[in-house]
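Re: that chain you flagged

S.,

Sorry for the slow reply, it's been a week of failed gels. I finally had a moment to sit down with the sequence you sent. For the record, here it is as I used it:
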Amino acid sequence: MVLKVNCPQCGRKVEWTDVNKWKPFCCERCKLIDLGEWAAGNHRIPGDPVIDPEDEPNSFH
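Prediction finished late last night. Pasting the structure tokens below so you have them in one place:
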């Protein structure tokens, strides 16, 4: 029996097999839409903020 999951973008049923090169998405379009949402900052992974040392004020001015 082949495992079927829902595409995280459109909800369409997707077979979870090695043949599906876009998994977990149903197609390249859904994959690219999701990538665009990450790039736009619409998705985030929770965690502590990261402070870049270059953004810190330099006390040796």
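What I noticed first: Residues 1-41 form a domain with the Erythroid Transcription Factor GATA-1; Chain A fold (CATH 3.30.50.10).

Talk soon,
D.
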